[in-house]
Each structure stands twice: as structure tokens, then as C-alpha cells.
Amino acid sequence: MTNVSQSEKIALVAISSAITAVLVYRWSKTPGRNVPDEDDFVAHQGEPGAQQQKQGDGDDRHFHVPYIHQRLALWQIRRRSEKLLRNCQQRRTLRFFSNDAVPKDVISNILQTAATAPSGAHKQPWTFVAIKDPRIKQKIRAMVEEEETINYKSRMRKTWVDDLKPMMSSLHQEMAATTNGEASSSSPPPNIRIEKPYLTEAPWLIAVFKQTHGGLDPDTGKRIDHYYVQESVGIACGFLCAAIQNANLCTLTSTPMGAEKGIRELLDRPDNEKLFLLLPVGFPAAGATVPYRNPERKPSSETIVWK
User: How many whole angstroms separate alpha carbon 116 and alpha carbon 236?
Assistant: First the structure.
């Protein structure tokens, strides 16, 4: 065998390491391949034993099973909490969206994350409708704009309208004039037309419905009760916003006051579902702006109390 010099050995090792690194990277990027992060951990319910199954009488709500939880090192726990904090601190409500596509599987992951929220008696009283069809989005936008124009003119208190002016002036020139002192009245000009372009510009529009009850029991015909519906769906929407931010996307929580019934009927949802929020989801448009905040949020000393 031909003798190999020391420099040649080093070169061979370097080449071998580079090839290995490329292969590992390509393997990690294979579709469907789940590569755990350094701080990932396992937490799930265990399987019921024979005795538990017997005691349960076929109803899995009647017994408990072990909760399996992998505890991380304290430095990992701290790093995970800091990383999520930094991510969520960058979240802002956005009104200017790009129409760049967002894959359906990403939206599916986001909605499934929202559905992991806790709920009263585990009834999960929510329905998420993910809308991509531009015709449906346009119909929703028309309904919301019509009702919102009425809201600004008569339904909303003057203080409410005033508080919204700095956020909405970039969308409505009439409101910008009022904000800049060119109009003396607290109410918007009578000819103002409220516009919601983000409802059609974002590639996805998510309609969140709360289920006031679970429909009718097929055996008894009685209504299936839900509990703490408002709180449960509100928590799920919090999970939803965090999941959207985590996916490098943006959103806005829109409350379509006055248009709820029309949107529910358009989306063919049952009477026991009430529209809770509309959230456009996508990437920021080129040149997108947000209202200036200084500071961006209240200091923790004003929102957190330690005892």
C-alpha cells in the first residue's frame, strides 16, 4: 500500500467530515423528517392498564393514566423561556400584508397548535375556518366594511374612535386629517368609508367561532352543554397568535361587530357557533408600517405582581 503523508491524511479527514456534514444536513431536511432540537422534551399521557380499562366501563373519562414528562436541565428551561420571550416581544399587530403564499400545512400546524389550548371540561368549544378562496374573502370584507362604517359613525363611543385614530390613519385619509387637527369633531367625517384591505390581501383569513353549546345529543335530544366558552376560546386565540408569530408570520385580531351573522351564514356554520374573531395571516407587505410605540409595551413592573 502506498504510504500516505500526514498532510494527505489531514486532507482526507477534512473531506470526509465535510461529506458527512452535507449528508446529515440533507437528511435533516428530508420532508417528513423530524429532527429534535437540543431543548426538545417528551411529555404525553401513558396508556391505561387492564385494571383501569375495566374500571372505566368503556368511558375513558372515568380514570386517570400516568403523565410522562421528561424534565430538562435548568439551563435548558431558562433558555427556552428566554427564546420564546424574545420571539413574542417582536410581535406586532399588522394591517399591511403581502399576498405571498403561505403553505397550507403551515396554517394547519398553527391551527392545531391553537386547538391544544385548555378549555372548560375539555369541551374544546371552538371551530377554526381557514379561508383561502379570494371570492369568499372579498364577500367577508364587503360585509365587514359596511358594518364597520356604521360602527364608526354611530355605534362606537367617541373615546373609542379617538383611541383608534393613530392606528387607522394610514388606511383612511379622512381619519388622518382628523388626527392631525384639521377636523375639530371627535367623530369621523360623515363621508368616511372604513376600509379593511388586509381581509383580502393576506393569503389566509382565519375565522374563529365559539360554540355556545355542543349541538344536540343524538340519544336524548338535549343540548350538550359547554362551559367557560368565552374564556376557553380566548385562550385558544392567544395560542393562535403565539403560533402565528412563532411561524414567522403576522396577523391582526379583527372583531367584525355587526357582521357576525352574515359571515356565519356565508361560511355555512351552524346556529350554535358564533363568530369570535377574524385573523388575516401572512407576511408583511413591502414597506409595511406599524404605529410607533414608545415604549412598545408597558414595563413588567406595571403588569406583573410578585408576592
Answer: 8
pLDDT at 92 over 60: yes
Helix (H) or strand (E) holding 108: helix 104-114
Q: Which residues pair with 211 in a beta bridge?
A: 273
191 pLDDT tier (thresholds 50, 70, 90): low
* Residue 289 grid cell: 408600517
pLDDT, greater one: 219 or 84: 84
User: From edge to edge, which strands make up the β-sheet containing 204-211?
Assistant: 126-131, 204-211, 273-282, 250-251
Inside any domain, residue 279: yes
* CATH number of the domain to which 120 belongs: 3.40.109.10
Cell numbers representing residue 272 in the block: 350554535
Amino acid at 8: E
- The DSSP element (H or E) to which 165 belongs, if any, is helix 158-168
> Is the N-terminal amide bond of 295 cis, ω within 30° of 0?
yes
* Number of domains into which the chain is organized: 1
